[in-house]
Design a protein that fits this description.
The chain is of the alpha+beta class and 487 residues long. It is 52% helix and 7% strand. The chain folds into four domains: 5-141, Beta Polymerase, domain 2 (2-Layer Sandwich); 142-235, cca-adding enzyme, domain 2; 259-395, Hypothetical protein af1432, CATH 1.10.3210; 401-482, no CATH class. 36% of the residues are buried.
Length: 487
């Protein structure tokens, strides 16, 4: 296990001043899992004032005995290293913060206050592991287990219930079972029993944990674990309403199962976080809008209702407005028309106007997740390739006189003529000529050519020019069709 020089230096300085010092918590867990820690924490019996004297470059803005030491490291994970005095926590009246902090006598007392056994690990300067709660054994067996009694740990900080799910989700091994990691039985039952305590936690803290779950490769399994532990009903009650609610002949899964499977696709394909949330929420309006039962049931306007629910959920969880707007936009438009027989160029332009061209790829990825989440075998069928073709076609700058570096007004001024067919004829000829040779699209060259064309029989030239323009349009359209495999 390699401890970075910046961390080693801090340990050496503390020990050199006759204090105890250990690397502690999640970074030790990550080292044992052969992962690069995202941050580094040190614990010591030195008091905050003593730590500050040893490390003048610091800041200390909390009541938990944590001094943040600034280093000159170029590694973002090592620029700030937190040093916390051994402590034991008092009673947690609000299920969030200890009422008082007391300094602990030794490292074992400090580790006893931590959440899970896999995080109650310390590493000395000479690489000795302090492990009073068998955290290494639980790491090996992939078990999430509280330090001591689970109910007491969750009573202290209810967010730990959500963190248990997050750890089981994020730490799960690739290629193993649905979840390589499991929550230990007593810990699991304590979460189920006390899930309502999560309501005491700030929405910002819940949001941060939820993001980590949905951003992971086991996002769908993580959401399902929230449902099985009874946490989902207090965090995303709108989503849980879809459990067991059947759909129609187009679906083989209930609303909740389909939503999870759609989310699973986005995680497997490593889609952006906004698409993942949209996949999870895209049918969240269906329970509210369901009419009838059986294969012919309907869900009219579930996209509108789902967009409203999505906005309400994300606002409740304190997501930033930009993120909310993007997810709501995707949910609202996920039912866009993509049938080749029904999709017109005008319809494609309206979709671009609603979505913004930059959001179209994300909308198509959401449709892919939706389709695969229904159990459909084809990832991108002909109809989705058709919408991509149509969007690109109507989005491209048209083959028109706007491409010219001279306009009709300038031509009229040059030739001292009024608006009329002659101006359009000259523009058509110029356009045909720059299609043949783009180098001719030069202001001075065009002005010279306008004077020459003023003496020609423009009606004949205009007909020839139109043929060339139409030929170019067909050529460009063929390229776009071939790109999207459209015949």
């Amino acid at each position: 296990m390699t401890i970075p020089k910046e961390v080693n230096l801090i340990l050496e300085k503390l020990i050199g001043k006759n204090y105890e010092a250990y690397v502690v918590g999640g970074c030790v867990r990550d080292l044992l899992l052969d992962k690069k820690p995202k941050d580094w924490d040190i614990t010591t019996n030195a008091k905050p004032e003593e730590i500050k004297k040893i490390f003048p470059k610091n800041f200390y803005e909390n009541k938990f005995g944590t001094v943040t030491v600034l280093t000159n490291s170029k590694d973002e994970t090592l620029k700030e290293i937190e040093i916390t005095t051994y402590r034991k926590d008092g009673k947690y009246s609000d299920k969030r913060h200890p009422d008082e902090i007391k300094y602990a006598k030794n490292i074992e007392e400090d580790l006893a206050r931590r959440d899970f056994t896999i995080n109650a690990l310390a590493l000395s300067e000479n690489r000795e592991i302090i492990d009073p709660f068998d955290g290494q054994k639980d790491l090996k067996n992939k078990i999430i287990k509280t330090v001591g009694k689970a109910e007491e740990r969750f009573d202290e900080d209810a967010l730990r219930m959500l963190r248990a799910v997050r750890f089981a989700c994020v730490l799960s091994a690739q290629g193993g079972p649905a979840l390589g990691w499991e929550i230990e039985a007593k810990t699991f039952k304590a979460i189920q029993k006390n899930a309502g305590w999560i309501q005491a936690i700030s929405k910002e803290r819940i949001k941060d944990e939820l993001i980590k779950i949905i951003a992971s490769q086991k996002a769908a399994e993580g959401i399902d674990l929230l449902q099985k532990t009874n946490l989902l009903k207090f965090i995303l009650p709108e989503l849980e309403k879809g459990v067991g609610v059947s759909q129609n002949k187009h679906h083989i899964y209930d609303i909740y199962e389909h939503s999870l499977r759609s989310l699973k696709v986005t995680a497997e394909k490593n889609f952006a976080l906004e698409i993942r949330f949209a996949a999870l929420f895209h049918d969240i309006g269906k329970p509210e809008t369901k009419q009838g039962e059986g294969p012919d049931s309907t869900f009219y306007n579930h996209d509108y209702v789902g967009a409203k629910f999505t906005a309400r959920i994300l606002e409740r969880l304190k997501f930033p407005n930009k993120f909310i707007n993007k997810v709501v936009l995707l949910v609202r438009n996920h039912m866009f028309v993509s049938d080749p027989e029904r999709l017109t160029e005008a319809g494609a332009r309206r979709l671009i106007a609603r979505m913004g061209k930059e959001n179209i790829p994300d909308l198509i990825n959401l449709r892919i997740a939706d389709r695969l989440g229904m159990g459909r075998p084809k990832e991108k069928p002909y109809r989705l390739r058709t919408i991509e073709y149509m969007i690109e076609k109507v989005s491209k700058d048209p083959i028109s006189a706007k491409m010219l570096k001279i306009n009709g007004t300038e031509i009229m001024k040059m030739l001292k003529i009024e608006p009329g067919p002659k101006v359009g004829a000259i523009l058509d000829v110029l356009l045909a000529e720059i299609i043949e040779d783009p180098k001719k699209n030069d202001k001075k060259k065009l002005e010279k050519r306008v004077k020459e064309l003023d003496k020609e029989d423009l009606e004949k030239l205009r007909e020839l020019a139109k043929g060339k323009i139409e030929e170019k349009k067909e050529e460009e359209d063929l390229k776009i069709r071939e790109k999207h495999w459209i015949k």
